[in-house]
Amino acid sequence: MEILNQFGVQPVLLFAQVVNFLILLFILKRFLYKPILQALEKRKELIVKTLKNAEESEKIYAEAKEKSDRIITNASEQSRKILDESNKVAAQIVDGATKKVAEILQAAQKEASKLVDIERVKLNQALKEHIGELVVVTYEKVNGKKLTEKQRKDIVEMKNLS
How far apart are CA 162 and CA 143, in angstroms? Predict the structure, then answer.
């Protein structure tokens, strides 16, 4: 122990300092080290939990995005089908209407042609009657004699003129 004295170390003080160090170590471990470790453990658990939630959120987001893409694709296909179908129906309606209009126009043209023919016949008949009357009046004035009703009728109807 003399060597210790030569270096200026006092065993009682050294022992007291070791005891003080152990007491301080115990106090620090008990009141500081454990709460810090517990706080770090809680923070670690919170980080792990947050990471799990983030992964779940990403998974849910990916599923929702995939589902929305499918819905959009499906809706797009359905709208294209509806549009194609409506175009076909519209084309059929236009074709039907065109045919109907063509039929109506053709029928109207036939009716108009019949009416023109009837009017032509009436006009020819009226013209013949007027010409006949003119011939009768001219004949009577030129010859100075009156024609009988039968002769007048024959001339107006352009029958046997003798």
Answer: 14
d(CA 93, CA 47): 67
Q: Could you give the C-alpha distances from 29 to 16, 21, 23, 32, in angstroms and in order?
A: 20, 12, 10, 6
For 122-141, the pLDDT digits (tens) are 998 888 888 888 888 888 88
Average pLDDT (86-94) is 94
Specify whether the CB–CB gap between 132 and 157 falls below 8 A: yes
144 conformational bin, left if phi > 0, alpha if psi -120 to 50, beta if neither: left
Structure tokens at 89: 């129906």
Q: What would the two tokens of residue 154 be?
A: 């024959």
Q: How many CB atoms lie within 10 A of CB 65?
A: 10
Would you state the pLDDT for residue 162? Answer: 45
DSSP annotation of 160:
-
Tell me how far apart the alpha carbons of residues 139 and 155 are, in angstroms, rounded to a whole number.
Answer: 10
- Which amino acid, 25? L
* C-beta of residue 44 within 8 angstroms of C-beta of residue 52: no
Domain ranges for the chain: 2-156
